[in-house]
Amino acid sequence: MELLVWTFLAAVLALVTVRAFRRPAERSNSWSYDQLAALASDELLPAMFVDVDAFRRNVRSVADVASRSGKTIRLATKSVRVPELIQLALSTGGSAFRGLMCFSTAEVSLLAGAPFGFDDFLLAYPLVQREEFETIWRLAVDMQRKVCLMVDCERHVELLEAFWRDKQRQVSPASAPRFRLCVDVDMSYRLLGGRLHLGAHRSPVHDLDDLKRLVNIIGRSPAVELVGIMTYEAQIAGVPDRNPFVSSAMNAVLRLFKAVSARDCTRKRAAIAEWLRAQGIELEFFNGGGTGSLSQTAADANLTEVTVGSGLLQSGLFDYFHERHTECAFAFGLRVTREPMPGVVTCHSGGFIASGSVSGDKAPAPFMPAGVRPFDDEGFGEVQTPLRVPQGVSLRIGDPVFFRPAKAGEIAEHFNEYLLFERHGEHFVTRKAKTYRGLGANCFETVRP
After folding, report:
1. pLDDT tier at 20 (50, 70, 90 boundaries)?
2. Which of the four, 61, 286, 319, 404, has the lowest number of CB atoms within 10 Å?
3. Among 91-105, 162-176, 231-245, 309-323, which is the least confidently predicted range?
């Protein structure tokens, strides 16, 4: 029966046509073009502007959703990439936030070191290079930081054990701590024995039998210990289902698919939890979800925590989810430098295209003033971005135009600092906060010990 349902849905998908129009970013009532233009008047553009009040509201909103279901939130730091905002999220969220999820050893090293001193890290992607193992060893032994590493196969465990045995020969066995591990379990929706795979291609741990084999391998190794399970459902948390760049029929199919897939995820997690209990295995955490599936994932009784990152800043893609708990908290500004013809202006820079499959929703979305839109045949360029200006909107050379980035974290690689602003009555208080880039860090490089 299930196969028949999905055969029908595949036929529907084949008939779906993509819309040609570009939907502007949704605006929050807290944003005003005149006020933002005044803040930008003395700034060198491009620049990123963060509404701290909206950011705090977003933190409280996601904390409330998670807390109502008895879950804590693990903050996905790569979706923020500004240590001051990471600290603000943790202080605002209080006990609802517990731990950080990072992309790389470089990111962990930055956040664990002075002056930040963060702790309790989950490295979300497997490590395979000795230089990376050296960095984790230094963090655990010299800095006493709690870092959990991701694995999904026997080879990951073998590499860690080989490194650990080398270290054990250099130091006393008592001072050689075991690596803390989390197993990444694939939550993709799979049919026909895996020949139809709907979801991200991440982990080879597809079912409970795969997990049992890997947990047994971990249990036999003196170099590692299992402390967590991650079950990220990318096909739910990372896929917009009210996307203006596809047809309403496609969005309807996506919502139906996500509902079916969510039930499958709950079933898989329940089986994992039951087996862990039967084996007497107690974990520190059982993780799942993301901003795009927050309430749905938080409701899963098998989990202890959910991951949130992009929702704190609410990048443009997350306007396109049926489930939303947050509002726009940041936008970048470009300066108008040319007027090539009536009704058209050209801004300097702008080509901040997000990663992922190539589609229109990965481009920035015009935000303010309302109604401006890019040309389909030019889009957002590295050096310039031409815009159509609607009647009733006045833009002249030197004026700012504001945009929403499609993704929250990647955009920080283009800026050394963000301008943070807060409302105090009728006035704004501003300050600058450095990004990873502004601090001289690159979370994509390997830290060499």
Report:
1. very low
2. 61
3. 162-176
Report pLDDT digits (tens) over 258-274: 999 999 999 999 999 99
For 218, the token pair is: 């971990």
Q: At what angle do helices 248-279 and 208-220 cross, to 10 degrees?
A: 40
Question: pLDDT value at position 359?
Answer: 87
Q: Is 33 exposed, middle or buried (0-12, 13-18, 19+ CB in 10 A)?
A: middle
Nearest to 314 by CA among 298, 292, 299: 292
Nearest to 8 by CA among 249, 325, 354: 249
Cα–Cα distance between 147 and 145 in angstroms, integer? 6
- More confidently predicted of 45 and 3: 45
Residues near 375 by beta carbon (within 8 Å), at least 6 away in sequence: 386, 387, 388
Q: Which residues pair with 347 in a beta bridge?
A: 336, 385
Distance CA 437, CA 273 (A): 40
Calculate mean pLDDT across residues 56-79.
97
Name 302's Cβ contacts closer than 8 Å, sequence gap at least 6. 266, 269, 270, 272, 273, 286
CA dihedral 87, 55, 323, 75 (to 10 degrees): -10
Cβ atoms 165, 221 nearer than 8 A: no
Residues in the chain: 449
Query: Strands 373-374, 384-388: parallel, antiparallel or unpaired by DSSP?
Result: antiparallel
Residue 42 exposed, middle or buried by CB count within 10 Å (0-12, 13-18, 19+): exposed
Q: What's the CA gap between 198 and 177, in Å, rounded?
A: 39
Residue 7 has pLDDT above 50, yes or no: no
Query: Taking the CA of residue 387 as centre, how many other CA atoms within 13 Å lie in the half-sphere pointing to its CB?
Result: 37
